[in-house]
Write a structure and sequence with these properties.
With 182 residues, this protein is mainly alpha-helical. It is 78% helix and 0% strand. It contains 6 helices and no strands. The protein is elongated, with a radius of gyration of 20 Å. About 10% of the residues have low confidence.
Length: 182
Amino acid sequence: MSRTVTASKFVGTVSLGLLTGLSYTLSTTTVPPLLALPSATPAHSTFRHLRTLTSRHQVLLSTLGVSSLVMAYLLSPPRLRHPYLLWTSLVISLGWSEEAYSKVKGKISQKKKTAGDDVRGKRAMREGSWTEDEEWIADEGNVNGEAVREGMEGWRVKQGVKAAVWGFGWALAVVGIWGDGA
């Protein structure tokens, strides 16, 4: 059982380190070149693709990190159940707190909103939510360059904050593993 606990701690810490590195790299080296693209349309499509892939990888790594650290806590003997495992799992979850809050807020506001006869309202009601991309698209289907830039810069800041939060969690996990002697 000791090897399982040690492996779980290691997997959780490495996952959190990869999560931190992913967010840091996105905020510092990936988004700035997208902001320099000459046209809004390729920037928009590339950014949408980047956001989709990033979300998928961040969910995978954060789920792996939380589940590994909680499993290590639960499988540890009572005298070795260190609370840093739960604190680190909580910090991983804090990185998603803004998204969770905005989804809950969006669902509440969507229930309050009544969609009239306009096509966009009907489509949003059919799909279940408004997408962030809809505000970037003008009436004729053209992409609004200023809105795309603002969206990218806001997302870049979010990734920087996530990198800081998850970096703190990673440091907490490393110090905890070091203290355990695992």
